[in-house]
Amino acid sequence: MPVWLRQYRWRQSGTAVFLSLPVPGLRVSSANIFCSEQYLKVSIPPFLFEAFLFAPIDDTNSTAKIGNGTIFFTLYKKEVAMWESLTLENADKEKLQYLRQNAVLKAQEKAKEEEQAKKVTKQESKKYAVEATLKLEEADRKRIEDLKEKERQNVTKELELWKKQQKDAEKQKEYKQEWVQKEELLHQEAEHLKEKEKEKMNKTMIPNEGTSKTRLKPSKGLGSCSMFPENLEEQLPATRSPATIKVNFTSRVFPTPLRESRVAEEEEWLHKQAEAQRAVSADLSELKDLKEEEKSPDWLKDKGNKMFATGNYLAAVNAYNLALHLNNKLPLLYLNRAACHLKLRNFHKAIEDSSKALELLTPPVPDNENARVKAYVRRGAAFCQLELYTEGLQDFEAALKIDPKNKAIEKDAEKIKHLIHGTTQN
């Protein structure tokens, strides 16, 4: 059975009712108070206070303050009037039950409305968050597009500059060719003039047949004689015709002398390089969007080198991939892509590209020594990163055989030896 709280004090004005309910020694919270338009209830088991108000109140703006063992209610009236009493008097049980149930139903409806309002507010908050996220993504997308456009403009400018340089180089080459042709013409004219002058000199120095006979003919006077024989003209030899001696030297591609070089291997290497330069297939579907000047493996290799220098290793890999689609016989493309994979820690791919470069760098000649050293060093570094120190040491020692004076490679090989020694001891 509940213990009813009967003691309370109240006063009123035209717009509000002030109710003071003593609850000494009881712990009260807002969950213990229930208030509707015409029903007020305080439940602190086993204590209970219940009041059916004389007239409706504004339960939304009404307040309850808890402190010092007292609950102080401020109940605002819906209509300005003076109440005859705080509660309804002489009301039957049915009416009181109806007021109680109506208060509970209204409270439930109000709770549902508040919950629905919270859901709507939550949905609006989610919608706002999604819109904000979309705006941020759009801003990021726009920023990325702007960066791409700037990069595209930079590439276009570089391409235009490269075209201009190529045109200037062609013009300079044509100018040199014209200048060489003019020099050859002038030289030929000078030689022709020299020949004419020599002919004139020969004509002036050697007398003709009529004058020589009259001049060399002896006179018939007494004591006349000649110191030249009569057949002097027949004894003189003919003048030599002028000529130019040309000396030709054997052209050499490699710096080693012919007597020290391996001619067969060098010729095979040059033949393979020439075939690799000619093996360009620009009919691939991935390359349709490229311009004609961009379908050059050399141009794409230079572009990849620039990307690698700026630290954009993924873009450099893409450039080398396109170049290899165009021509998969150039070892430098595999060698440069292996360096990118090392930076990206794709060690297995670095080993594959280095091995492919070494396959193409055959036969071994002085012209590809530097490339073979780089291939062995990069593959050895990838092996060491995968903790395959024995294989890595073999590659570094192979690089040292090609370039025995390279102190950096020798130092790295010594480090790997120490690592292998430490691993075997452990």
TrEMBL record:
Gene3D superfamilies: 2.60.40.790, Tetratricopeptide repeat domain (1.25.40.10)
Domain CS: 3-87
Keyword Cell cycle among record annotations: no
Chain positions of TPR repeats: 373-406
Keyword Ligase: no
CDD domains: p23_DYX1C1_like
Name of the protein described by the UniProt record: Dynein axonemal assembly factor 4
Gene symbol of the encoding locus: Dnaaf4
